Every structure is written in C-alpha cells, then in structure tokens.
Amino acid sequence: MAVTVFAMALQRNLFSAVVLFGLYSFFMATVLVALDAVDVAMTEAAVGAGVSTVLLLGALYLVGGTEAKPLHRPLIPLTLAIAVGVVLAYGMQGLPAFSDAQAPIHTHVAPRYLQESMKETGVPNVVTAVLASYRGYDTLGETVVVFTAGAGVIALLRRRRKDAK
Amino acid sequence: MSAIAGHYSYWVTVFLMVAGLYILIARTNLLKKLIGLAILQTSVYLLYIAPGKLIGGTAPILANGFTTYSNPLPHVLILTAIVVGVATLALGLALVVRIRETYGSIEEDDILARDIADADG
Amino acid sequence: MRNDIILRVIAKIFVPFMLVFALYVQFHGDFGPGGGFQAGVIAAAAIVFYALIFGLDAGHRLAPEWIVEKMIAAGVLVYAGTGFAGIFLGGNYLDYFVLGADPVSGQHRGIFWVEAGVALTVSGVMLKLFYMFTGRGREPEDA
What we know:
Chain A is an all-alpha fold. Chain A has 2 domains: 67 residues, no CATH class; 64 residues, no CATH class. In chain A, helix 1 packs antiparallel against helix 2, helix 2 packs antiparallel against helix 3 and helix 5 packs across helix 6. By secondary structure, chain B is mainly α. Chain B has 5 helices and no strands. The interface between A and B is large, with 86 and 81 residues.
C-alpha cells in the first residue's frame, strides 16, 4: 500500500493516479478483512474501488488529464507534513498496543452490545443491529447526508436548457 | 521494542495520513488534492478499526462455537464514515467540474492568476 | 464498447446476477456481512456497468431519471416514516419494539424497513451521481 501511495503522489498523469487509487482501495479492503472488519471491507471495496473510482474517472473526463509541473520544489509542505507525522507518532505511543483486550474500547459498551444484542434484537450480525437499532439516529443522519450530497450535486451540475455553456 | 511492534498498525496509519496530507497541501492540481483527501480519509478508517481487532477473535457476527469477537462499535462508525466520505468526494468533484468550466483550468496557480487579473482589470 | 462481443455477452450474463446479489446482501444483512449501504452501492454498480457497456441511453431506459430522483427522496422518507410509526404505536421516535407483537419481532420489522430505506437512498444517489457526471459533457457535443 505504501508503494501505491508513493506512486500516486509522484504520478503526473491523472488517469494513472485514479487507477492507482482504485488499486489502493482494494488493498485497504483486504487489510480490513485481515482485521476482521467484514462489513467495513465490503463497503470499502464497493464504495472506494467502485463508486469513488467511477466518479473520479467521470470528473477526469470532464476536466482533462495532466497535472502541471510544480514551479518550485515543495519543501515547505514536505517539512510541514513530516512535522505533523512526528507529532502524530509521538501521540500514538500513548494508545494501547495492538490487540490489547484490556483497552478501554473493549470494556465499556461493546461487551453489552455483544451479549445483549441476540436477546434484544434477534439479529446475529451485531454491526447491523448496532447500526440500525442501537444507533439508529446516527444512521438516519447519515442517510440525510447522502441525500444532501445528491441534492448538492444536482444543484451544481444540473443543466439549464437556455444557457448551456 | 514493543513501541514499534505493538504499535505497528499506528505507524502504518500515521504514514498514510502524512502521505495523504502531503498530497493535499503540496500539489496544486485540484483533482490531485481530492485524491489526497480520499487517502487521508482511508487512513482514518484504519486508525479506528485496528484497535478493535482481537487476535484469536472473529468478525462480530454471533455464531455458535466462537466466544471472542472483534469490537463492533468502530465498524459501525466507519461504515458511516465511508459513505460520508464518498458524499464529500462527490460534492468536491462537482465543484471541480464547475471551476473548470468557469476558469478553464484546475491548476491553483492559473486560478489565482485569473482572480488577480479580474480584480485588477 | 457496444461492438466488443465479449463485453456484451459478459454484461448480459452478469447484470442480473449483480442485481440479485444486491438483493441478497440487503436481506441477508442480518445474518452475515451486508445491509443497506452495501446493497445500495452494489445495485447502483450493476446499472452503471450496464450503462458503460451498452451506452448511456440504454442505461437511461433501464433506470429513468425521474425514478432515480424519486428513489432518493423515498428512502429518507421511509426511514423517517419508520420513526414516526414508532410514535403512532405508542413509543418514542424510532422505537422498534412497539412495531410488532413482541419486542424482538418488532425489532426485526423496524430493522428491515430502515435498511430498505437506506438502500433506496444510497443506490439512488450513486446512480444519480453517475448520470450527472456523464451527462454533463455530452450536450456541448450535441449542440
């Protein structure tokens, strides 16, 4: 994945950058399966490698294809990004180690969901039960966000018959 | 050395985040910036899901014969995040298309030059 | 791509399977990975695939614009409506356990309708985005 991201950053041809992005999404989906997040992996594969790549290609067709050569070497952004990375790495040291069963994430609400969801909802897939039932408001908000995005794109890209550019 | 081995997933996350951030701020092409933003978003998914995994556990679908499950809560949050991310990407792409039609180019320098010329003239 | 016979044959075989798979993922989301979002995206991807191979007009014939626009709004309304049904039957907004004879079947019914609403909106929006982006560049060429 690191190689893909490097190549994407350096590529000047935008079409290959978009194809590499699709490849990167598939790698991310595979990593997510390895982390036991099957619902998320399915969504990432469908959305990232499917819809995102198709939309990027559609926009690329409308916008046209190559990136200009930068005028001066981007040293300030590079140092800024590396500085942010160092600060993040320092902060990450405080987080629990990989697969630590005593981490706070595993000891508060999650055991209740895992144990009670069969009795209260009768749905074996705990992620669906939490998404649709325990945290139903969040899913309502998300559906409205998707609706708003669709409405926004319609507002931006709708053609008016009289003054087409 | 558990700072490195135990936190390996965090190192990968930080690397992806920094790479996405670099593409976002260092490249002047608007479409490239959006791709960098998408990479930044996927690194955040990794940041949330990696701590939820328990070695020896399985996916959070209740079945006979399994006792340890990975934490379902980050999965729910990231499902929402993925869909919101693609909504943001779609709106950003629509804006880039409109910018291209108005300014004729999607390079930041050309757009700034046009704006300065319009403000002066 | 209309003239490439391999792509046409494969598209004709695969598109029905993809649509049925989307329905499977939607309804099997209770027992395995899946649910509303994945099903909506897979259904939209099936129609996008069809439109890419057979042309945008064929895609428009299969999923006309007005149906897609109605689907986007209908999904959100179904979701909100399930919440209001909870109020009418005696509980709070988005309470599922009042929807059925006993709380667990009420939960099943509520989750079913909620996921259906989500799938409608997500597939509608993804398809509409595809139509918008591909329809934008065509009119200057026609005029």
